[in-house]
UniProtKB/TrEMBL annotation:
InterPro entries listed in its UniProt record: BT_3987-like_N, FA58C, Galactose-bd-like_sf
Residue ranges, annotated region (Disordered): 177-196
Gene3D superfamilies, per database record: Galactose-binding domain-like, hypothetical protein (bacova_03559)
Residue ranges of every copy of the BT-3987-like N-terminal domain listed in the record: 32-149
Protein name according to UniProt: DUF1735 domain-containing protein
Native source organism of the sequence: Haoranjiania flava
Length: 317
């Protein structure tokens, strides 16, 4: 056996036998045996929720820290602490409002970490987002107030459930409708600036009407095969001449094409740049088969132009 091989062999023996010469050490973590809220860790309490009539469950509970397991059941108690909203706002320079009691139901405020487990049985907040103001930022502070055994982790015992945005599932349904206009481009709907350009999905094209001052009010309409509920629409301004932009208009809906309901009304509107897309939202709980825009005034010019008109349907998952 050569010297090099002997040295290598002795080295490997030393590596594998060294641990056996030392007493086994128990691995522990700084939070060993503490009870905390997992939802208070790493911003897990900042949530995005969907706008819906159906309640959405937001889960919370207690956890046992470290590498070991509890020997017996541990009861954890919670409370909602409204005073913490103002405290949080002052410390973080935010403007959250307390989530109204009428918008949620708590499944309970007490739970148990079973012996041999690290997580408690879950509790939840059943939140009905249809009842909240979508444009308000809400908070619901849930605090773990006591545990039956073990040490409460005071750094991670409160979850500041924050709802910065209520997201409404939506889809663009413009292409599902058929377009009609009250006044057409001189070259017809298929012309380079004909009415078909209004809903072609190409934001660099446009619909242009000449001598519009003598044709006020004028409009354009989408007809759907089945009634739909629209909650928003967009206008994209033309590529030039801001005086051709719409200034005052109404969006109306109809079930039969004869009787119309005004859903949104705008006045003195301005587009700050060319080919700018602006979104307009409104409240609407009714499905209509017909939707139309009635323009009552443009921005001072003698022609009307618009690059694109799109309509948005909100829906629930």
């Amino acid at each position: 056996m050569n010297t090099y091989f002997k040295i290598c062999l002795m080295g490997w023996i030393a590596i594998f036998t060294l641990p056996s010469c030392e007493k086994d050490r128990e691995i522990t973590l700084p939070n060993e045996g503490t009870i905390y809220m997992p939802q208070a860790v790493n911003n897990r309490d900042k949530l995005q929720i969907l706008f819906s009539q159906k309640p959405q469950n937001i889960y919370f509970g207690a956890a046992y820290g470290g590498m070991s397991y509890p020997d017996s059941d541990i009861t954890a108690n919670f409370s909602v602490d409204p005073a913490l909203v103002e405290k949080y706002n002052l410390e973080h320079n935010t403007g959250y409002q307390l989530l109204p009691d009428s918008t949620y139901i708590l499944s309970g405020l007490s739970t148990v970490i079973k012996a041999g487990q690290i997580n408690s049985e879950p509790l939840f907040i059943a939140l009905t987002t249809k009842k909240v103001d979508r444009h308000t930022k809400y908070m619901l502070p849930v605090k773990m107030t006591s545990v039956s055994t073990g040490k409460l982790d005071t750094a991670l015992h409160t979850a500041f459930f924050r709802f910065d945005a209520v997201v409404r599932p939506e889809r663009d349904i413009t292409n599902s409708g058929s377009l009609a206009v009250s006044h057409e481009n001189n070259g017809g709907p298929d012309a380079g600036e004909g009415s078909k350009k209004l809903v072609d999905g190409d934001y660099s094209s446009k619909f242009l009407i000449f001598d519009i001052k003598s044709k006020m009010p004028f409009g354009f309409q989408l007809t759907f095969q089945n009634p739909v509920k629209i909650g928003a629409y967009t206008f994209t301004s033309g590529n030039d001449a801001p005086d051709r932009d719409p200034k005052n208009w109404m969006l109306q809906g109809s079930a039969d094409g004869n009787n119309w309901t005004t859903l949104d009304s705008r006045s003195d509107e301005k587009f700050s740049s060319r080919n700018q897309t602006r979104r307009f939202e409104f409240e609407n709980e009714t499905q209509y088969k017909f939707y139309r825009i009635v323009v009552t005034e443009i921005n001072g010019g003698g022609l009307f132009q618009m690059s694109e008109w799109r309509v948005i349907e909100y829906y629930e998952l």
